[in-house]
Write a structure and sequence with these properties.
two-stranded parallel sheet; 327 residues; three-stranded parallel β-sheet; binds adenosine monophosphate; Rossmann fold
């Protein structure tokens, strides 16, 4: 029997940080390695066009993300790993969905409202229709399960609305999708631990996976720990969460206990964490550098992935074209 299809993507926004890793990619690698699923993971470069990057920046970010995902364990053999724009069917299906989706549904998306504020000088149509492309991404591969964060819930509901609209108008073809909202750690900013770790806050707020221990040390030294008024400060909680993820159980238990009884020395915790994160990603850094130094190999990986994805996408589009009457 065919394994259930799992589908997920990530935008090329530059070097991955530990929030992206713990909140998304680590889970992908675990799902892949469980052997229970037919996994599709992709780099959402069409989506990144709605943002502000130049062409050169975008090209570099796509290459880097591809190298980083492979270095983190995405296996191009067992997984279909590809770049969205290498499979033109994504935009073709998006256009067909564009023509059945009510604008009012798009205008109420909270991400559209947020992004319109974030880039008020560039409120392009792509920001509005982005969830339609997302619906096309997903539905081309007819997956059963979509591992996503809660922030994508509204978009996935829209995807199911599009399924209903399409099927009603052109005949039952697409199936409803089921998001899986795995409880994944939410990593907070080092400097403003009330906010989610994000590069948009500034370089000092994040730890990138490719950073050397000396860079990690410098950043952690500046990380906020205690706050006025006592109680467990969010900064301290965040560092302990990271130690739990990247350090030994023994180290975590020791620091968690000393934090509770108030004897913790944050300097020691930061040193332990620097060592743990540095060690955890040592092999990753080497593998990443190797892949980036060998663009031909990376190109080959992505080409193979695009071919595999395209086979499935082309079959879906053949049916869709007939259903809507353009073939
Ligand atoms: P973004 O580029 O911000 O959309 O992030 C890509 C993926 O990483 C998404 O699946 C996010 O849920 C996840 N992610 C981003 N930042 C964090 C964070 N600080 N903690 C946990 N997960 C995160």
């Amino acid at each position: 029997m065919a394994k259930p299809v799992i589908f997920s993507g990530i935008q090329p926004t530059g070097n991955l940080h530990i929030g992206n890793y713990l909140g998304a990619v680590k889970n992908w690698v675990e799902l892949q390695n469980s052997g229970q699923y037919d996994c599709y993971f992709f780099i959402a470069d069409y989506h990144s066009l709605t943002g502000q990057d130049s062409a050169d920046e975008r090209r570099t970010k796509i290459q880097t993300l591809a190298a980083e995902l492979v270095a983190l364990g995405i296996d191009p053999e067992s997984t279909t790993f590809f770049v969205q724009s290498h499979v033109a069917e994504h935009t073709e299906l998006a256009w067909i969905f564009n023509s059945i989706t009510p604008i009012a549904e798009l205008q109420r998306m909270t991400q559209f409202k947020d992004k319109s504020v974030q880039q008020e000088k560039n409120i392009n149509a792509g920001l509005l229709t982005y969830p339609i492309l997302q619906a096309a991404d997903v539905l081309l591969y007819r997956p059963a399960l979509i591992p996503v964060g809660k922030d994508q819930e509204q978009h996935l509901e829209l995807t199911n609305d599009i399924v209903r609209l399409f099927n009603k108008r052109y005949g039952e073809y697409f199936q409803m999708i089921k998001p899986i909202f795995t409880e994944l750690p939410r990593v907070m900013s080092l400097l403003e631990p009330s906010k989610k770790m994000s590069k948009s806050l500034g370089a000092g707020h994040v730890i990138e996976l490719c950073e050397e221990p000396t860079q990690i040390e410098t950043k952690l030294k500046k990380a906020v720990t205690a706050t006025e008024g006592g109680g467990q400060a969010p900064g301290a909680a965040n560092l302990l969460l990271l130690l739990k993820q990247f350090g030994s159980a023994e180290a975590y238990n020791t620091f968690a206990k000393s934090e509770k009884d108030g004897t913790i020395r944050y300097g020691d915790l930061k040193q332990e964490l620097t060592r743990s994160i540095g060690d955890y990603f040592r092999d990753f850094r080497a593998r990443r550098a190797e892949l980036l130094a060998n663009p031909k190999q990376l190109h080959g990986i992505l080409e193979t992935g695009a071919r595999k994805a395209q086979k499935v996408a082309a079959a879906t589009m053949q049916t869709v074209r007939q259903l809507v009457g353009i073939r």
